[in-house]
Amino acid sequence: MSRIPLPYNSKVMDLFRNPKNLGKLEDATIVAVAGNPACGDMITFYLKINQQTQIIEKAQFESYGCAANIATSSIVTEMIMGLTLEATWADITWQKVTEEIGGLPSVKFHCGVLAVGALKRAIRKYFNDQGSEPVWMPKENTFEEKQALEEEELANTLSKRLKPEEEKSP
Question: What pTM value is reported for the model?
Fold first, then answer.
């Protein structure tokens, strides 16, 4: 069976080949992971947050996944640096991320959703770790957070079903 390459635009391919802000951030204020290696897409975001101003001073990522996964993660880090956590929460959506990279094939929209889900998970984790809950943050998970969680749950379920019988535990 032949595989036809997906029609990625030049910006996606450039960010895939030359990602911005790639790598672990040793002095990160918060780290959050979304995805599952079993399904092929995994993102870890590292955010350095100014505690007084709640401005994202630095953002980096690590990714295990396709060109769209790497490109969307890369562009998210570029879009959020210098923003407050509140502005980031309100303004960064998977649609804006997809638009910022010049579009994605429809079968790859989930990569933008996963990147924003990981970002919002990091922000929610930051406030949970601080023991506070800002009034602007909804109590319920956002669409992107729910989608990231559903992908992880699906991948976990599939990986359990694919294990050889002797590896499955009762």
Answer: 0.84
Question: Which residue is catalytic, options 22, 33, 38, 39?
Answer: 39
Is residue 66 flagged as an active site residue? no
CATH number of the domain residue 42 falls in: 3.90.1010.10
d(CA 98, CA 109): 7
Residue of 92, 111, 123, 148 with catalytic role:
111
Work out the pLDDT band at 38, boundaries 50, 70, 90. low
pLDDT at 169 over 80: no
Q: Count CA atoms within 13 Å of residue 57 on its CB side.
A: 12
